[in-house]
Design goal:
Blueprint: H1 3-8, H2 14-17, E1 21-23, H3 27-36, E2 42-47, H4 52-66, E3 73-78, H5 83-93, E4 101-106, E5 109-115
Parallel strand pairs: 1-3, 2-3
Antiparallel strand pairs: 2-4, 4-5
Length: about 120
């Protein structure tokens, strides 16, 4: 791994192998995630896999969550592969699309929304 990969997350290693995530890859996955928010608070991380800023924010968030006592249900959305699902989230939940973006959802409603450097595990508390 090169020096720049270490700093900026050049290779997409972390999130694809990270057990923190449940992946949203279809409308059915999205529907189930939203339904799950009625029994437990969830978070959806919208990530652009080609953006080094998004990779850095994702890596920092994953480290925060791994070191946290809280273990919420975390969902991961690859924006490049599933932009249609991001658009559906924006439309259905009334949230403007950003990347990277963390949405905390409870009872089918977004209760917290942050992007870029404002993304933090503290949002989920």
């Amino acid at each position: 791994m090169s020096f720049f990969d270490k700093i900026f997350g050049g290779k997409e290693e972390g999130s694809e192998k990270n057990q923190l995530w449940k992946y949203i890859e279809s409308e059915e996955n999205l529907k189930k995630a939203i339904e799950h928010s009625f029994t437990r608070k969830i978070a959806i991380f919208k990530h652009s896999t080609s953006c080094f800023i998004s990779k850095t924010v994702l890596r920092n968030f994953e480290k925060e969550m791994e070191n946290s006592d809280q273990k919420p249900d975390l969902y991961f959305l690859d924006l490049l592969a599933h932009r249609d699902l991001s658009n559906k989230i924006a439309s259905d939940l009334g949230i403007r699309h950003e990347s990277p973006q963390l949405l905390v959802i409870e009872n089918g409603t977004v209760i917290s929304n942050a992007s870029h450097q404002h993304i933090s595990a503290d949002q989920i508390v």
